[in-house]
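Deviations from the work plan: none for this task. Representative record:
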Amino acid sequence: MKAFVLKKHGEVGYVEKPLPILRDAHGVILKPVLVSPCTSDVHTVWQGSPKKPDLTLGHECIAEIVETGSEVRDFHPGEIVAVPAITPDWSQPDVAVNYAHAGHNFSAHMLGKSIDGAFQERFYLPYADQNLAHIPAGMDLDDALMCVDVVQTGFTAAEEAHVHAGDTVVVMGIGAIGLAAIMGAKLMGARTIYAVGSRPDNVKIAESMRDESCLVEVLNYKTLRSSLPEGMHPLANSTNSPVVNYVLHRTGTRGADKVLICGGNDYTLAEAVDMVKYGTGVVSNVMYFGADPEREDRELRNLEDPRNREENRRNTEIDGLLLPKFSMGRGMAGKTLKFSLSKGGRQNLERVLRLIREHDLHPGIFITEHYTGLDKAKQALYDMKDRKAIKISVEI
Ligand SMILES: NC(=O)c1ccc[n+]([C@@H]2O[C@H](COP(=O)([O-])OP(=O)(O)OC[C@H]3O[C@@H](n4cnc5c(N)ncnc54)[C@H](OP(=O)(O)O)[C@@H]3O)[C@@H](O)[C@H]2O)c1
């Protein structure tokens, strides 16, 4: 069968692989029906840590069940199901309290990371009863496809921030994840959302989410002009960001209740900390902070240099992120920072699918390009890399 794989760092291509076999009684063999490349696939190929040779990419998928293991109870061959991007390892004893990293770090990020993903004609998934999700009757499959990763991740950002009714929320980034975070924050009762981004298609969708219950205002971080509110200490905006200035103005200098980081760069965390409220503010990050390879390399060399160990690591350099001490109240500001992998597994995805259906929401509008055939997976991945679409669905 044909598979679209990561050949080596920065190189993808198609290879022939044997059909997967059912490896255990709890697993299933799936045939992709709709797939979507994720920004995370782009990171896996061009920025990620080393992977097994010829790893098949892809973790956003609606699939048909081809074969089930003898212990699978709730799913049957022929059914069309939603496959969560995050599929916890249910064999780990701590999975009930640590679904994402049970047993070892990122254990739940299996598909297209530690096992072959969905960009092949058939693929294997373990723990079907815990990891597959039924799609509500009549639900549009594009909407369901957007739930398997995008909506689950956006909702994770909002839920981990504990958005409350009446909150003022900043959503940094209005790619698909940020747009889904706006949906999630609205469902949780946010009253005002400042959504930060610039691409016109994304801006249009973000603005369409404004209604009488919630003001959604888009801030274009490339063109916005705003100065620090009078009387504020200049260090209150450590990066001199107009977005921070604007949010401080609009919140009477108190800052936003919650900041959801769904896009940005290495300065975004500092901006978020600067513009979130003292005492109760939460910064909830779901963005991937790409490594700086040169810094990481210097960091490694310094750590390996015995002289540095002897000198108490005086030359230590860290490929890290900036936390402004001033806005952290020198360590006592009462601000909470969360860094999360998306929620996943059957229970969460079925909950999210139900919410989307019940509230008549249509994340399928994030799909701005449709392709047909596994042959198009490569083009779709490059389109995501070059930001030519918000999301792409590929019908297999
Ligand atoms: N935690 C998880 O489990 C999980 C799951 C899926 C994805 N992710 C991660 O989530 C992130 C978002 O994914 P996506 O597909 O939505 O990405 P995307 O389409 O690239 O969107 C990124 C957004 O960030 C905005 N942005 C860029 N620089 C900015 C800056 N300096 N300040 C403010 N906004 C800025 C972009 O603005 P423009 O409009 O100007 O482009 C865009 O709106 C990625 O890092 C992805 O890897 C995480």
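Residues 91 and 103 are 9 Å apart (CA to CA).
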